[in-house]
Design brief:
The protein has 10 helices and no strands. Helix 3 crosses helix 4 and helix 4 packs antiparallel against helix 5.
């Protein structure tokens, strides 16, 4: 795919959704971090349903430490891997209080040193909470980047590196959101909704779903 076509793709995605936002609900960088940690192998809808039950009362590191691991596990037991996630969130809260004054650090290495926080989670927090032009390659972005020909790669890190190079600078900040939403609602895994796709004529996928 050439640079002109890539620019057209993002221009159209922006025109359709000028100010994209995360579908996770949160009120602070800390709440965003927790929501993203919980969202692994879970839907944003299920995460929002759970966090709405405890964020209002326990939505700080200190609040969740007071609630405790078992208390948190009760709130998130509808989410997959909830016991492991509860343990990681509580450990993360303790580290944030002890090392960072209860604040989420605006730093990749510090974020990735937290229990249960990998590169993808760190990228989401850096992008959404702190405005860094990072791209968190989840299953949706990986699929869209490969299927369309936008930034093919064998691993999420391959795709991330390639997207950082080929996405026009003016679109980098919001590229993550546009690609996630496109993969979630249009370029879905089993039967992409090509007839409804606003970039179908630019996409290089050879097996488009017929109208």
């Amino acid at each position: 795919m050439n640079a002109k076509k890539r620019a057209q793709i993002f221009a159209r995605l922006k025109a359709a959704n000028p100010n994209p936002r995360s579908e996770l609900q949160y009120g602070s960088p800390f709440q965003l971090l927790v929501a993203v940690m919980l969202s692994a192998q879970a839907t944003d809808k299920s995460v929002n349903a759970a966090t709405s039950q405890f964020f209002p009362r326990y939505g700080t590191p200190q609040g969740l430490l007071a609630l405790g691991q078992e208390g948190l596990a009760e709130f998130i037991k509808t989410i997959g891997l909830y016991r492991t996630k509860a343990a990681n969130v509580i450990k993360t809260c303790a580290i944030l209080v002890e090392r960072h004054g209860g604040e989420v650090p605006d730093d990749r290495d510090a974020l990735e040193s937290l229990p249960g926080v990998g590169r993808k989670t760190a990228n989401v927090v850096l992008n959404v909470a702190f405005g860094h032009p990072t791209i968190a390659v989840d299953t949706h972005i990986f699929r869209v980047a490969n299927r369309t020909g936008l930034a093919p790669g064998k691993t999420p890190l391959d795709v991330e590196r390639k997207l950082e190079k080929v996405v026009p600078a003016e679109y980098l900040l919001n590229a993550h959101h546009w690609l996630v939403l496109h993969g979630r609602y249009i370029c879905v895994a089993r039967k992409p909704k090509c007839p409804q796709c606003g970039i179908a004529d630019l996409c290089e996928y050879k097996h488009k779903t017929p109208a």
